[in-house]
Design goal:
By secondary structure, this protein is an all-alpha fold. It has helices at 8-19, 26-82, 89-115.
Length: 116
């Protein structure tokens, strides 16, 4: 089953392809070649966009977990030095930072998948 064209460029290419039967003259072969090259360019453009989106998502997820975790550690070290509790604020806030970071990453991924 053939895939339906999605973008206006793909629709135009599909329409011009249906208008002609088989390339017979050099002009028809040239048009066929240009159409093929245009399709390949659109395909590579989509693929490049997907790769960059994936890399960007890795960055967002990484930073959304790392920043709250590091802030939790910094605040924990400060509280451990300022007060001398019977438990470790650093470990407690490290865990809290990881939990907050994971929820934050989950939120970013959900927002990104809604836009797709």
């Amino acid at each position: 089953m053939a895939k339906k064209p999605e973008t206006p460029e793909e629709k135009l290419l599909e329409k011009t392809k249906l208008d002609r039967k088989k390339p017979e003259s050099p002009e028809d072969r040239l048009i066929e070649k240009v159409e093929h090259d245009a399709k390949m360019k659109l395909k590579s453009k989509k693929k490049g966009k997907e790769i960059m989106t994936g890399l960007g998502m890795f960055g967002i997820v990484g930073w959304s977990i790392a920043v709250p975790t590091l802030l939790g550690i910094a605040l924990g070290v400060y509280l451990d030095r300022r007060f001398s509790p019977n438990f470790s604020w650093t470990l407690t806030l490290l865990f809290a930072g990881i939990v907050v970071g994971c929820f934050n990453a989950w939120h970013w991924v959900e927002e990104s998948s809604k836009n797709d």
